[in-house]
Inverse folding.
């Protein structure tokens, strides 16, 4: 897998990170990048558990940090250098020697049933409607709607709630209609489209990737 220098990646504060205690149970927690001191430390918020309790960590604890940068999956290994409790719970992680990067495969597509609202941003004469994403990848989807929403080439905004485990997130995605489809999979559909995602925030992309990975894992378990 290719590697990058973290100094050259130009990460910004607020980036969501998945944190895993190395040699632990494989459970991942969510933290937020606070800042970088190049060559010295990575400042990350300490994951919070129920009742606003910080994840119990210790100095020199080995950690694996995963995140998305420009739709690319990245990961590095580090260790806790210092734990802080004010003005919030955060930690200093040792500067990683390298960051592994790997592009998510666009071809991985899974069955889904995500209820969404749809707005045509290219032509406001089309009324806002509702529908569902019936299959999904991290680069596009098959969309079915209660009412037609636009023609090929139209830019649309889709929004809906994604549930991953016990966490739900409202996501919004700007997409392009690239195909009109004739076959419907849902009983109340009157239109179906192939859409390509044009803009999605890093946090929404992370939620979407979690849905795709969860469906892949379920399919593997049934096999």
């Amino acid at each position: 897998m290719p590697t990058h220098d973290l100094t050259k990646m130009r990460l910004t504060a607020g980036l969501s990170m998945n944190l895993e205690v190395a040699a632990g149970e494989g459970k991942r927690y969510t933290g937020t990048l606070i800042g970088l001191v190049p060559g010295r430390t990575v400042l990350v918020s300490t994951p919070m558990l129920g009742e606003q309790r910080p994840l119990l960590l210790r100095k020199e604890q080995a950690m694996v940090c995963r995140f998305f940068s420009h739709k690319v999956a990245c990961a590095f290994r580090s260790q806790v250098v210092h734990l802080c409790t004010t003005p919030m719970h955060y930690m200093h992680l040792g500067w990683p020697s390298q960051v592994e990067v790997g592009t998510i495969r666009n071809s991985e597509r899974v069955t889904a049933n995500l209820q969404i609202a749809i707005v045509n941003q290219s032509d406001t004469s089309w009324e806002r409607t509702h529908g569902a994403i019936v299959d999904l990848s991290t680069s596009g989807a098959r969309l079915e709607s209660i009412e037609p929403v636009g023609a090929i080439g139209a830019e649309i905004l889709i929004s809906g709630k994604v549930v991953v485990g016990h966490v739900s997130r409202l996501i919004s995605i700007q997409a392009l209609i690239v195909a009109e489809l004739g076959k419907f999979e849902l009983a109340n559909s009157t239109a179906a489209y192939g859409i390509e995602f044009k803009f999605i925030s890093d946090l929404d992309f992370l939620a979407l990737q979690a849905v795709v990975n969860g469906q892949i894992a379920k399919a593997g378990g049934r096999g």
Notes: The domain at 110-222 is CATH 2.40.10.220 (Thrombin, subunit H). The CA atoms of residues 177 and 195 lie 5 Å apart.
